[in-house]
Specification:
Blueprint: E1 14-15, H1 16-19, H2 22-33, H3 37-51, E2 62-63, E3 70-72, E4 74-75, H4 82-94, H5 100-116, E5 118-120, E6 126-128, E7 130-132, E8 135-137, E9 139-141, H6 147-154, H7 163-182, E10 192-194, H8 216-228, H9 231-244
Antiparallel strand pairs: 1-2, 2-3, 4-7, 5-6, 7-8, 9-10
Helix pairs in contact: 2-3, 4-5, 6-7, 6-8, 7-8, 8-9
Length: 245
């Protein structure tokens, strides 16, 4: 009966991808059960997040559950942050596009991500860096590769004039993540890949050179195929199946 957070999570802080993701399931649980308490709890979390001052409009990965303030300024669209953004978009879609708070929070968040985290390599690969206390780490995790599909999924309902932009951004992220696979000997993407020291989309550290059947890259291929019907995405997905087995 006692709540606790992971001891490694910045002094016992709560993790954005965990508490920020729950609202999709809990809102649906209220819908199925007829009991509003589940939705009320998670909507309160979202209200706190919406009202908090965010550095450069970005959501840090850790929140102190006692003070209600950010614990440290580490921002990642990959591990620790990823599904928070995805579920803002999906909460809006699942509400039959009536949850306007979710929509606004999503598009505000990805605008900040594009401004402060998305960069292009010397040879034209678009990637999403991590932000640590105002400094960029030019590393992109395999987990971050879900974002290509997310950008594309939200494109149709983007602010005026940005639909094609977000669809193209999704395609560019998909290409970068494919390159992270294609540039390895095994043709399987590493846990993280970097864009510094003269390398692009390559793992440079031993603790990043592994593959554990993460689905994010193929997930983005699936969304891009469904939304564009460009056959290269099915080809890329099948390549991953072939080398895996």
């Amino acid at each position: 009966g006692i709540g606790r957070n992971w001891p490694w999570a910045s002094g016992g802080s709560s993790i954005l991808a965990e508490f920020g993701t729950l609202h999709l399931e809990f809102i649906h649980l209220s819908y199925l059960s007829g009991n509003p308490i589940f939705a009320d709890k998670v909507m309160n979390i979202r209200t706190v997040l919406n009202n908090l001052e965010k550095p450069q409009g970005l959501y840090p990965n850790y929140l102190n559950p006692n003070s209600g303030q950010w614990a440290q300024y580490h921002v990642s669209v990959g591990g620790l942050g990823d599904s928070f953004y995805e579920y803002l978009l999906k909460a809006w879609l699942m509400s039959d596009k009536t949850d306007l708070q979710a929509k606004k929070m999503y598009f505000d968040a990805i605008k900040a991500i594009e401004t402060h985290l998305i960069r292009k390599s010397r040879n034209g690969l678009t990637y999403i860096a991590e932000w640590k206390g105002g400094l960029l780490e030019h590393k992109m995790g395999h987990l971050t590769c879900f974002a290509g599909g997310m950008f594309a999924l939200g494109a149709d309902n983007a602010p005026e004039g940005l639909t094609q932009h977000y669809l193209q951004l999704g395609a560019e992220i998909a290409r970068t993540c494919h390159e992270s696979y294609n540039r390895t000997f095994a043709k399987l993407g590493p846990e993280a890949f970097r864009f510094d020291g003269g390398v692009e989309a390559i793992a440079t550290r031993q603790n990043e050179k592994y593959y554990i059947l993460r689905p994010e890259v193929v997930e983005t291929y699936m969304y891009m195929w469904r939304l564009t019907h460009d056959p290269k995405y099915r080809k890329w997905a099948w390549e991953a199946v072939e080398v895996t087995f």
